[in-house]
Amino acid sequence: LTMRKIHVQLGHIAPSTIMQMIRDDAITGISLDPSETTMDKCESCEYAKATRKPIGKIQEPPRHENFGDEVHSDLW
Description:
Blueprint: H1 3-9, H2 15-23, H3 43-49
């Protein structure tokens, strides 16, 4: 099998983890093709790791300019 095929079949785990599992005999019955021990970018993994920019906060009402313009307190 190729590294890409094993990567997909094992739930998109890291190629280095796959190599370690093969070395430690944690995976049995799978033989990795020696010419395919590395892989290029995985589109599914790249998409899953994509993040979006945070939405900026809009101050409503706007902040007060001077210290003491507005005071909040709890009275007992």
